[in-house]
């Protein structure tokens, strides 16, 4: 929990103050908290109580039972809290116009269409549940349509970009992370939960737990296996996690007080972002490596059904997003076929 709090502080400060100062703040907070334990606040549910807070608590319990991951639950919670506070009504009093006015308010305040759709989907999930559970007689989301989004072509990393990232990754761990994300196409949340015992070294494969609490098999390229093996061989700990946090840049006193632990999503994102800046590549993040893996596989002839299974997509329509041709590819085809 302490590592989670430090990661949240690091993420919050990123871009607001220089990176050197962020490291100093994190070191100082870590030192001050060395003799303390941190626990998340918990709330209990009174089943017979139908107040707003208890309705929301029951909703999150239901979603947790359905298998929604903690990060999604946290995201839902932020959206619902902001909506309820803005509307200023009890849940049972909310009507369609309240939702419309709130979405319009968010739009006016420069909320992008993707985020607006996420808000709409979250509210739809909540009010649909309320209707099914008998909390509401009528679902206020029934007449709320989806927000039309401008479809932007999100570019994968080029082969040159990948080589620059590989060459600038200083540690064996960072090299292994890059190769793992590119070889497997895993989500970062899936990668950070992999244990050493999950790796089938002989067959070069790993069973990962993905969305919907479903396992799937992902495969390691020869390059990825070598990078992983070199990283694992360099470790002297007995921890089960495949990838560990590090305390690079901390003073020795702080480093001695902190124990290694499983790497967090935030730490991976910050590492890749900083690596991208050094390489002169903008917008480097774990999902872009996943997109690069999918696009590369499709370009080299892997059937889209197999790419779908590799990525763990429920619907093949999601996978087709990666199959869209880039402008460069269209230009080359145009020069070839249009004379």
UniProtKB/TrEMBL annotation:
GO terms for cellular component: cytoplasm. One of its GO terms (biological process) is chromosome segregation. Keywords: Cell cycle, Cell division, Chromosome partition, Cytoplasm, DNA integration, DNA recombination, DNA-binding. PROSITE patterns: CB, TYR_RECOMBINASE. Residues 152-335 form the Tyr recombinase domain. Its main location: cytoplasm. Residues 50-131 form the Core-binding (CB) domain. It is found in: Cytoplasm. One of its GO terms (molecular function) is DNA binding. It comes from the Bacteria. It holds the Pfam family Phage_integrase. This is Integrase. It comes from Bacteroides acidifaciens. The lineage of its organism: Bacteria, Pseudomonadati, Bacteroidota, Bacteroidia, Bacteroidales.
């Amino acid at each position: 929990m302490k590592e989670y709090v430090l990661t949240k502080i690091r993420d919050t400060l990123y871009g607001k103050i220089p990176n050197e100062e962020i490291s100093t703040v994190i070191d100082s907070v870590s030192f001050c908290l060395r003799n303390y334990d941190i626990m998340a606040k918990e709330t209990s549910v009174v089943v017979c109580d139908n107040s707003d807070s208890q309705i929301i608590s029951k909703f999150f319990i239901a979603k947790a039972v359905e298998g929604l991951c903690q990060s999604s639950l946290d995201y839902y919670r932020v959206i619902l809290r902001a909506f309820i506070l803005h509307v200023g009504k009890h849940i049972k009093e909310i009507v369609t116009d309240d939702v419309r006015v709130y979405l319009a308010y968010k739009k006016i305040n420069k909320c992008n269409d993707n985020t607006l759709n996420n808000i709409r989907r979250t509210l739809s999930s909540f009010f649909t549940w309320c209707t099914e559970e008998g909390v509401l007689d009528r679902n206020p989301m029934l007449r709320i349509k989806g927000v039309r989004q401008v479809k932007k072509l999100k570019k994968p990393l080029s082969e040159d970009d990948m080589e620059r990232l590989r060459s600038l990754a200083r540690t064996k761990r960072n090299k292994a992370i890059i190769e793992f994300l590119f070889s497997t196409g895993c989500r970062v949340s899936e990668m950070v939960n992999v244990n050493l015992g999950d790796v089938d070294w002989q067959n070069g494969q790993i069973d990962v737990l993905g969305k919907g609490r479903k396992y799937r098999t992902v495969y390691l390229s020869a390059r990825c296996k070598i990078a992983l093996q070199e990283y694992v061989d360099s470790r002297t700990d007995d921890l089960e996690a495949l990838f560990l946090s590090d305390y690079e840049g901390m003073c020795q006193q702080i480093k001695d007080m902190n124990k290694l632990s499983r790497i967090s999503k935030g730490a991976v994102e910050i590492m890749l972002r900083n690596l991208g800046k050094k390489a002169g590549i903008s917008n480097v993040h774990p999902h872009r490596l996943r997109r690069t893996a999918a696009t590369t596989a499709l370009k080299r002839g892997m059937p889209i059904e197999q790419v779908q299974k590799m990525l763990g997509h429920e619907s093949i329509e999601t996978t087709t997003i990666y199959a869209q041709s880039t402008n460069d590819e269209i230009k080359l085809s145009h020069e070839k076929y249009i004379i």
